[in-house]
Amino acid sequence: MPPTPWRVGGAQRQGRREFQADAFTVGGDRATGRIAACVTDGLGDTAEAAEAAQLAAEAAARATLTATPELGCAAARERLAVSDNTADASIVTALFDPGRSRIAITWAGICRAYALTDDGDLTRATYDHSLGEHIRRHTTQRGPLGLYDRKVTRTVARHEFVTTSLPAQAIRSVLLCSDGVSQNLADHVILRALAEPDPQDAAHILVTAAAIHSPDNATAVVLHHQP
Description:
By secondary structure, the chain is an alpha+beta fold. It is 30% helix and 31% strand. It has 6 helices and 10 strands. The two termini are 18 Å apart.
């Protein structure tokens, strides 16, 4: 059995929302050592949004584990399409495969992936699919843009997914998170949390800190690379 070099931890806080509309799923394959992780953020504070996030996370992680993150996100889209649920969600999905030199990440919306490098630098691996990000990319506007940053332009159900990758050997930790974490914590706070030796402790610190600054749902999945 190929051992996986990754240790995983995940945590959530509901905040002051009526529903926990974030979800996460982590799956592993003992035969291959592969790990698939997915974080989703349902659009809206409703039971339907919470269900959509859960359906998408489960379908994406399951398909990613046996294939790729792109096919995982496609499976999440199909799962929502055949359900009676008309809600939607943001998504980020990653595959950690000891047989490959790179970590594959696919996403849509405002869930994010970060990486802590062996040099101690925090790198943001994804960019937001939001109206605010579109404005910053095409104008001289910088900094947060309030509601524009929460106006999602790609989702599980709508438009194309985007894929990127990271060199596995140069990465110490990876964070997948909802915007309840990323929109409310500065990079230095995220970096300090990812430096925690236990990934479960790191995830707990992130969602607890995010809850101090925001009423939003907050979800974090942290993977630490074991040398």
